[in-house]
Design brief:
This protein is an alpha/beta fold. About 50% of the residues lie in helices and about 15% in strands.
């Protein structure tokens, strides 16, 4: 683990005092007196920094505040834990710093040596935990699974834990959440990764050739069987067989999977000779299989054999903090492919973060792809998105109702930009009130506005604060 700590403060005497304490604990302090100088240093040396102490105020000599640099660090050097320090600490500032991503916030007036040592010990634990998470995030990103939320990290940990075994895994979640990506990641992290990952696209295999496709057949087994044929089970030997949309398989055909899964034995169509197979089964569905069992539509035996382990992927609306990361990732991919420098403005990212995304990652990716390829400007604003995203919104909305009435975050040409921005503003206030159980003071601090401003907005948008109080 690196032993370098970056101290960013314009008070030279304070920097020196803090550096001595840091040095006494076996760490190497690196001092900078402005955010600009510190960022320039991090551009080349971020990997060598384990922790940053960062002041809030930098006076007129710097264009950036400490909160500005904190936001920049969280976005571009997210591996570095940041402890904010301030001579003018307020609850509002502390809440803002924590919300942006600081791991701790302490006032200079109480920054005694014992306090700093406690912070360093706590940071050591944070660094160890964060290092593990960084490695996991990188592995997931290599598999196309983007995010740093606790929910997605839990999915990642299960992927790695189950991949070490040969147990059958059932991947569940709503449509568009990335179940196939998770299945591929299990294969990639397993001992079978050097062999094939074979997909059985269950809804698209005609039932009359289902057995032939999976088990293969011998010559003459049926009309048109001119040669011996190997099935998908053979292709997946020593690898992984992915049963996609297993919930769509009819009860009659489900019986065909029981013997191969339990005894790892198959027979080609037209043959009486059993063959041993070495295959790991991963399945995925967006269906309620327990409900299907109760209705007689899914075999309980098959369910238990396929679900030795389960990975549930939460919908995008339950991990909204991942949306900015997903937007940044796909924008980078687009820019690399098309040699462009496009970007979504912060307000546009916030807008997208608050949409419902009924189609989850698939809908978000489709929307980003359309926007990036059809909007002919580098800096994409909310107003640019209306036409680009109107078609994807309708795909994932209930057509029996007016789309705009059903989901106010769906872009509508019937509303002005000002009206859409007001909707974003209202939804942000309501979601923050919900987090704070209707506490207006905490909500104002988290939104970085005064209580008076927030009260005015609450009246303007006719928000009932009481409904958020438990």
């Amino acid at each position: 683990m690196n032993q370098n700590i970056l101290i960013v403060d314009d008070n030279i005497d304070f920097c020196s005092t803090l550096a001595e304490i840091v040095r006494s604990q076996g760490w190497k302090p690196i001092l900078h007196h402005s955010p600009e100088d510190a960022i320039a240093y991090l551009e080349k040396n971020a990997s060598s920094i384990s922790l940053m102490f960062l002041d809030i105020e930098f006076g007129d000599r710097s264009r950036m505040t400490g909160l500005d640099m904190l936001a920049h660090t969280v976005k571009h050097f997210f591996t570095i834990p940041v402890v904010m320090i301030s001579g003018k600490g307020t609850i509002e500032t502390a809440v803002s710093a924590t919300k942006i991503g600081a791991v701790n916030f302490i006032e200079k007036s109480i920054l005694a040596q014992d306090k700093i040592i406690d912070v360093l010990k706590s940071a050591s634990e944070t660094i160890g935990s964060k290092t593990k998470n960084i490695e996991l995030v990188r592995f997931l990103e290599e598999q196309g699974i983007i995010g740093t939320s606790p929910q997605i990290l839990e999915v990642g940990n299960k992927i790695l834990n189950y991949a070490r075994t040969d147990l059958n895994v059932l991947v569940t979640g709503e449509t568009g959440t990335g179940k196939k990506l998770v299945a591929r990641a299990i294969h990639a992290a397993s001992r079978r990764s050097k062999c094939l990952f074979v997909t059985v696209d269950i809804p698209n295999i005609p039932r009359e050739i289902f057995q032939s496709e999976l088990y293969g057949h011998v010559r003459g087994a049926f009309t048109g069987a001119m040669d011996n044929k190997k099935g998908l089970f053979h292709q997946a030997t020593k690898g992984t067989l992915f049963l996609d949309e297993i919930g769509d398989l009819s009860p009659e055909l489900q019986a065909n999977l029981l013997l191969p899964i339990e005894e790892k034995t198959i027979r080609k169509v037209g043959s009486v000779e059993p063959e041993k197979i070495d295959v790991r089964f991963v399945s995925a569905t967006d269906k309620d299989l327990i409900g299907a069992i109760k209705e007689g539509k899914f075999r309980e035996q098959l369910y238990h054999r396929l679900r030795e382990c389960e990975i549930y992927i939460p919908p995008l609306r339950q991990r909204r903090e991942d949306i900015p990361h997903i937007i940044e990732y796909y924008t980078k991919v687009h820019n690399a492919e098309f040699e462009q420098t496009k970007a979504f403005s912060p307000s546009t990212v916030e807008y997208l973060k608050n949409r419902e995304w009924n189609g989850n990652i698939r809908e978000l990716y489709s929307s980003l792809r359309v926007a990036l390829q059809t909007i002919m400007k580098n800096d994409i604003e909310i107003s640019d998105l209306h036409l680009a995203l109107s078609h994807t919104s309708s795909l994932y909305s209930d057509t029996s109702q007016n789309v705009a009435d059903q989901n106010p975050m769906v872009f509508s040409t019937e509303r002005s930009l000002k009206e859409d921005l007001s909707l974003v503003d209202k939804m942000k206030i309501e979601s923050t009130l919900k987090v704070n159980n209707g506490n207006v003071s905490k909500t104002a601090a988290m939104l970085n506005v005064s209580r008076e401003t927030l009260h005015n907005k609450i009246r303007r948008y006719d928000i009932n604060v009481q409904q958020y109080r438990k």
